[in-house]
Amino acid sequence: MSIALARLRSLAQPLNLAAFLAWLGVVASFVGENRAIAPGAESLVGLLLAAFLAAFVWPDLTSGDDASRVRPQRVSVALQAVFALGVCWFARTTTAPVLLVVVLSELAMLLSLRALVVAAVAINVVLYGVLAFVWQASKPGLIVLIYSGFECFAAVTAWYARRAETAAAQLRSVNAHLLATRSLLEESARDQERLRLSRELHDVVGHKLTALKLNLALLERDSDVDRKKALGTASQLAGELLGDVRGVVAQLRQHEGMDLRHAIHALVAPLPKPRIAVELGDDARAADVAQAEAVIRVAQEALTNIVRHAGATHATLRLARDGDALVLAIADDGVGSACLRAGNGLTGMRERVEGLGGTLDVSAAAGSGVRIEARIPD
């Protein structure tokens, strides 16, 4: 149900709404003028207009994600071009070529610039033939030139929107990667600080324990020593030792493993959809940099797959400690096994986890989402 609602919502995007308005304008113009090339062709024009609309909405209603939608979109736009030219052929209305403006704007989102130019030229050559030989228009070249200008404007706008959208997605991914890496570096620095504190504990405590031991040994073997003074010195050393140990232990408690909270939230925050619930255990701290990096990279790849391929509306990310291992579990409510195919990074995730002696389990069923669980030992 949630997937169906998401697909219906995709039809309400601004560019789609503009296309619907253009289609309605052509329909209203044809109904108002009611001019067909031949008696009885009105029904055929109506069928072509309905077929154009059906081809337009088909990819959004049948494909779950951007990757699986590319091929249906290309077939859809090709059909729309045929139906639009059919409307231009059978309907004697000057607004019919508006449908070709919609077609060219869609092609700009799918084709390279060179292929787009070739397609635009081919479509307008056919349109010129329809105007000149079927309609027998007095100035077919002028009409084609006017609509070519509209098509060019729409196509260029859509092409730049496509580039901006791609660049924005790449920037979001890179930014999330950088934020997560920065968090790991900060935690790595804290880990180094913990090592420094342990060395300091050894040096400071070792030095004062040695002094205390020598002082007590002196009291034991030398009866002439000033016992009150020696005991005072020993008491002072013991007090200093206790203070030093408490201070170092207090600092060590702040560095019990690498905290992954900031890195995980940095990965999730830039993602506009789906809605991701994050559950992090209080003890979900990495033992070292290698374990922390593995957790972050697996989470990043899994979240990227959900955004690009799953067509999900909700997802969950859980990270908790189970004995001497960190367990990362990510699940979504997307299309399930339909998105598990080569190139989705599963091999890379498995190699990274198994390289640290861990395991990666992936389960999926069509229509019920994917669940990935990585167990990474200390």
TrEMBL record:
One Pfam family name is HisKA_3
CDD domains for the chain: HATPase_UhpB-NarQ-NarX-like
Is Transferase a UniProt keyword of this protein? yes
Q: Sorted alphabetically, which keywords does the UniProt record give?
A: Kinase, Membrane, Transferase, Transmembrane, Transmembrane helix, Two-component regulatory system
One example of the protein's molecular function in GO is: protein dimerization activity
* Residue ranges of every copy of the Histidine kinase/HSP90-like ATPase domain listed in the record: 293-377
Signal peptide location:
none
Give the domain of life.
Bacteria
Q: Which residues form the Signal transduction histidine kinase subgroup 3 dimerisation and phosphoacceptor domain?
A: 193-255
Alphabetized SUPFAM superfamilies for the sequence: ATPase domain of HSP90 chaperone/DNA topoisomerase II/histidine kinase
Gene3D superfamilies named in the record: 1.20.5.1930, Histidine kinase-like ATPase, C-terminal domain
> Cellular component GO terms, alphabetically?
membrane
The protein's name is Sensor histidine kinase
Organism whose genome encodes this protein: Tahibacter soli
